[in-house]
């Protein structure tokens, strides 16, 4: 658990409240990190997706009220994921379906969150 907490701290420190395309998104990277933190263990180790992870995925999707919110969430996830050693992007992209929902983008190191 210590490694996961360290990763959360690193991700939170890297995620400032920034603007995309000049429009301020309402969602923050700190919120996205909090909601999706329970998914890190599945993304790194596999196994079973926890109910807390699914709740976080659904909460983060519901929190996206505008296109800018969705873009910001995408950028937060992309930037945060890049800081997690041994993250398996295939597993990460399987999480929404395993939680009974969908995500409008695929998480990858080169996803263009502006589209």
Automatic annotation (TrEMBL):
Residues 1-25 form the signal peptide. Keywords: Signal. GO terms for biological process: lipid transport. Residues 29-113 form the Bifunctional inhibitor/plant lipid transfer protein/seed storage helical domain. Belongs to the plant LTP family. InterPro entries: Bifun_inhib/LTP/seed_sf (IPR036312), Bifunc_inhib/LTP/seed_store (IPR016140), Plant_nsLTP (IPR000528). The keyword Signal applies. The keyword Transport does not apply. CDD domains: nsLTP1 (cd01960). GO terms for molecular function: lipid binding. This is Plant lipid transfer protein/Par allergen.
């Amino acid at each position: 658990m210590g490694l996961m907490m360290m990763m959360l701290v690193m991700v939170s420190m890297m995620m400032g409240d920034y603007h995309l395309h000049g429009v301020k998104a309402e969602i923050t990277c700190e919120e996205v990190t909090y909601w999706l933190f329970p998914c890190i263990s599945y993304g790194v180790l596999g196994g079973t997706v926890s109910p807390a992870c699914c709740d976080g995925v659904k909460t983060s999707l519901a929190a996206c009220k505008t296109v800018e919110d969705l873009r910001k969430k995408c950028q937060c996830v992309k930037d945060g994921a890049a800081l997690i050693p041994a993250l398996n992007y295939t597993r990460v992209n399987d999480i929404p379906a395993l939680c009974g929902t969908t995500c409008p983008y695929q998480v990858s190191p080169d996803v263009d969150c502006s589209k």
